Amino acid sequence: MSEDQAGGVRLTLDEVRTLARAVLLGAGLSRDHAVAVAETMVAGERDGCTSHGIYRLLVAANSIARGVVATDAVPVVSEPARALVKVDGGGGFAQLAFERGRGLLAEKARNYGIAAMALNNVVHFAALWPEVETLASEGLVALAFTPSHAWVAPAGGTEPVFGTNPIAFGWPRPGGHPFVFDFATSAVARGEIELHRRAGKPVPDDWGYDANGQSTTDAEAVLAGAMRTFGGHKGSALAAMVELLAGPLIGDMTSRESIAADRGRGGSPIGGELIVAIDPVGFLGDAVTEHLARAEAMFDAIEGQGARLPSQRRYAARDRSLADGVVIAPALYRDIMTLPQGE
Ligand code: NDP
Ligand code: PYC
């Protein structure tokens, strides 16, 4: 650990991991959960995704303290149909449920060409790209969706109905990092607005409305009012799709139901996640190499004109973090260090 020029605290990724595990154990999480949850925070910090890095220790500790999370839940994996996996997370954080089901999901995708996994009854505060990147790194095409809490107004309205409802996609690339994107269907992730609030910074006036339905640059007011979807009616329709796919379709909560179930405790969203995995070999057989090469031609056409691929920034940040560690903002580090730590 060292201090950088701007007063930030520089940590190696191992130090981030050790800190994250200690805080999660100190908050009362079982070891299996602490290890799985810490890993996604290390990945967020490593890849420059600060809204889902170790800032989330404060979020996770809050959900635990408020009794929203089952700290020692043991995920139960079942197979409701040949190509389907279901993991009942028992009210625990989603990360361990994904870990427990992902091997079977990948196996089924290889056996049947396509498979889907529902995570049910989980508490979710994480980014989705670690999940689709993991599956794409194993040669599968992957999609993931999860609702959250009703914080986002539909296009044309100002009252929250949707969650920030991310969609993530992963595509395997021969010899390189997978093509991955992962974004909220709201104008930004809520975590980004929370970081603005913590830093006392205004937000752009198209991120959300205050409680009276007026546009505002006050982060606190947007958090108390309603966020906007990205891309107007298009983001709004995608947000609705996420609600349906990872809510009613898998027998789990919509974002409105999730916030109602929270009962004002201010915890992370409770509900489900849908992950779809497709094996390109299913459609393509021996021709898979030839067709994946055609995809590479499309990526070349994007990069060839100076545009960047989603995740390119993340992979570059990863290289830097693996070499130099990461810098944690001083106020965040101070707040994290006030939390109890366990072993
Ligand atoms: P961003 O808008 O920051 O980025 C979204 C995606 O777009 C990334 O894949 C990013 O790649 C890519 N991207 C950004 N700029 C460009 C560009 N100029 N050219 C090409 N690609 C680009 O994401 P959000 O704020 O919407 O979401 C952040 C995270 O929050 C997500 O990981 C999401 O899963 C998480 N989240 C989780 C929720 C939950 O309920 N669990 C709810 C909402 C959000 P790169 O990373 O390389 O910049
Ligand atoms: O940043 O919008 C968000 C978010 C919600 C749940 C997890 N992250």
Task: Give the key terms.
globular, Ribosomal Protein S8, Chain: A, domain 1, binds pyrrole-2-carboxylate, 343 residues, 12 strands, alpha+beta, Hypothetical Oxidoreductase Yiak, Chain: A, domain 1, 13 helices, 2 domains, binds NADPH dihydro-nicotinamide-adenine-dinucleotide phosphate, 17% strand, 7-stranded mixed β-sheet, 3-stranded antiparallel β-sheet
Describe the protein's architecture and organization:
With 343 residues, this protein is α+β, with helices and mostly antiparallel strands. The chain has two domains: 1-65 and 311-343, Hypothetical Oxidoreductase Yiak, Chain: A, domain 1 (Orthogonal Bundle); 74-186 and 229-310, 2-Layer Sandwich (Ribosomal Protein S8, Chain: A, domain 1). 43% of the residues lie in helices and 17% in strands. The protein contains 13 helices and twelve strands. The structure holds NADPH dihydro-nicotinamide-adenine-dinucleotide phosphate and pyrrole-2-carboxylate. Residues 51-52, 124-129, 146, 148, 164, 166, 168, 181-184, 188-189, 192, 269, 308, 310-314 line the site of NADPH dihydro-nicotinamide-adenine-dinucleotide phosphate (NDP). Pyrrole-2-carboxylate (PYC) is lined by residues 51, 124-125, 148, 164, 184, 189-191, 268-269.
